[in-house]
Amino acid sequence: LLFAEFDDAANLLAANPDATTISIDEPTEIPKNQHGRLQGPGREEDDELLGTDDSDKTELLAGQKKSAPFWTFEYYQTFFDVDTYQVLDRIKGSVFPVPGKNFVRLYIRSNPDLYGPFWICATLVFTIAVSGNLSNFFIHLGKPTYHYVPEFRKVSIAATTIYAYAWLVPLALWGFLMWRNSKVMSIVSYSFLEIVCVYGYSLFIYIPTAILWIIPEKVVRWVLVMFSLCLSGSVLVMTFWPAVRDDNRRIALATVGTIVVLHALLAVGCLAYFFDAPELDFPAPVIPAHNVSTVITKS
Amino acid sequence: FAGLADVSISEDIPVEGEITVPVGSHSPDEDYSTLDEPVRDTIMRDLKAVGKKFVHVMYPKKSSALLRDWDLWGPLVLCVSLALMLQGGSADSKDDGGPQFAEVFVIIWFGAVVITLNSKLLGGTISFFQSLCVLGYCVLPLTVAMLVCRLVLLAGSGTVSFIIRLIVVMAMFAWSTLASTAFLADSQPPNRKALVVYPIFLFYFVISWMILTFTPQ
């Protein structure tokens, strides 16, 4: 993609030699150097993680992209400039995290979109509410005192929780990273939208997890929690570790730890609130009657 | 203008013509004349337009009538009747019952607005109200499903009635989604069609879920 832009410029120049041009020599040299450097040992992983090979060009592109003023409709259209295959690629990248590859640099590439985070959160809200309702229905199915209720209140609670997590936590994290960046010069910094994007796409794994939580077995549910937490947590950790690595060791570890803990809290909280615990099978009405009758005969 | 100073009109030639501007377009005439027509005609015209759109939804062919002459009367009637029929569930203050009237209303209208905004942000060429009109009218199959479910529930609420309701709701959900996709898909850029169709699917899925889980008191 990036090389194609320079080709177009050359073609345009050939077509119209009188046009004013700005020649930027440096970026064309950097990729060649990168190819040489990538062959070297040791720093290869770091370069891929940091994305210094295209960070200059991504900064240029980022500057050219969002030029419309924020009160026009076109400004917001730049956040939805994704095709179907791009969204599917990003989802795939969040579900199968490649160790060593940074989600933001690899998939987002300075084109953060709001489509993924918004609709993944919406799907997750309804999936959790519907699955929780279904799971409770199956758990309490045989009991004579159980009257099915759709529990529609829980949809609004789920919506508030998930949207607050997907937007407020990135806001806090972005603010925190900006503050630390002013003290410690870090090579990697993310814009607010990129952080929202990572968080939104990392929530995707919880959608199939929520559907599988219908199975009323405690062990199965906790295994699912661990598994999805590992996958999405690793995406988040691999994204944010390079950003805080240059900082004070304890602060870096505390930041990454907080990210993982909050993510775990979301998963466990949803499991605890929306899904009733599968009860052990015991014939509840029968035993007290026997006790009462034995007590009466004894006395 | 120098040459015109020499031009003069001889007094022998009569100057004639019409000064009035011929009224060729329809709308100024109609605006003036609909004041004189009986109220019944005015109302019947709107009702016929709404009825024609209902027919278009039930037999979705790619006609542009739904898109060209949008109106929001049909969606309003459908939304209110669906929300009313979803009442009468368990309204205990202790139990989390079904959705309240306001919740259904908000879900349908807010959902339709969000989907319309989504399709416009992705580069769709349809106008805002046309999209709202289509999404609202395509709730018709689900309203029919709600009616059928209530009638089935009058007969009984066992497993058989649940299976009948499930089949009916699933069929109507598929019908709604296909109808709205048939009308809306053409106005989207081709490599983003799935991105636009998915929220529509989610929207009708949520409405279908509300209909299916309706339990009378």
Automatic annotation (TrEMBL), chain A:
Taxonomic lineage from the root: Eukaryota, Metazoa, Chordata, Craniata, Vertebrata
Keyword annotations from UniProtKB, A to Z: Membrane, Transmembrane, Transmembrane helix
Q: Which InterPro entries match?
A: Yip1_dom, Yip5/YIPF1/YIPF2
Q: Which family does it belong to?
A: Belongs to the YIP1 family.
Q: Does the keyword Amino-acid biosynthesis apply?
A: no
Bias kind Acidic residues: ranges: 44-53
**Transmembrane parts of this sequence:** 114-135, 155-179, 191-216, 222-244, 251-275
Pfam families associated with the record: Yip1
- Its protein name is Protein YIPF
Q: What is its main location?
A: Golgi
| Record-level GO cellular component terms | Golgi membrane
User: Which one GO biological process term can you cite for this protein?
Assistant: vesicle-mediated transport
Please list where the region (Disordered) is annotated: 23-54
TrEMBL record, chain B:
**InterPro entries this protein is in?**
Yip1/4-like, Yip1_dom
The entry's localization annotation reads:
Golgi apparatus membrane; Membrane
One GO biological process term: endoplasmic reticulum to Golgi vesicle-mediated transport
- Entry GO terms, CC: Golgi membrane; trans-Golgi network
Which membrane topology term applies here? Multi-pass membrane protein
Q: Which residues cross the membrane?
A: 70-89, 101-122, 134-156, 162-184, 196-215
Domain Yip1, by residue range, is 59-210
- Alphabetical keyword list: Membrane, Transmembrane, Transmembrane helix
- What does the sequence similarity comment in the record state about its family? Belongs to the YIP1 family.
Please report the name of this protein according to its UniProt entry.
Protein YIPF
- The scientific name of the source species is Thinocorus orbignyianus
